[in-house]
Amino acid sequence: MDDMQPSLFGHEELATKRYVPKPEHVRNSLKSLLDQMRAAERWPWEGAVLELYRDIVPPQLYADLPDADEAARWRAEIETESKRLDAA
User: Fold this and answer.
1) Which residues touch 29 (CB under 8 Å, ≥6 apart)?
2) DSSP state of 8
3) How far apart are CA 77 and CA 85, in angstroms?
4) Which of 38, 45, 71, 87 could be joined to 50 by an S-S link, Cβ 3.0–4.6 Å?
């Protein structure tokens, strides 16, 4: 009887499905982040939010891009702005 009843929590389905963001959504997020950084004279965030947007979010977004060269270009632009804001 157990073979006929589906899993209550759908473990089988969770193991096979993974959310893959659309590259255009990733690019929009990176562009928004970069625009905020470029518009600021100093870091526009503080504390944990600064750590999130400086250290955590960008690497995750780079990893979601299908092209490593494109990810490297975004990384270079964001690192340039990070250095500028760190110096301010």
Assistant:
1) 57, 61
2) S
3) 13
4) 45
- CB count in 10 Å sphere of residue 45: 15
Cα angle value 71/76/78 (rounded, 5°): 95
pTM above 0.85, yes or no: no
What residue spans of the chain are helical by DSSP H? 11-16, 23-39, 47-51, 57-64, 68-87
Per-residue pLDDT 10s for the chain (88 aa) are 556 666 666 665 555 688 889 999 999 999 999 999 999 999 999 999 999 999 999 999 999 999 999 999 999 999 999 999 999 9
The 8-class DSSP code of residue 65 comes to S
The contacts of residue 65 (CB under 8 Å, 6+ apart) are 23, 26, 27, 71, 74
Amino acid at residue number 59: P
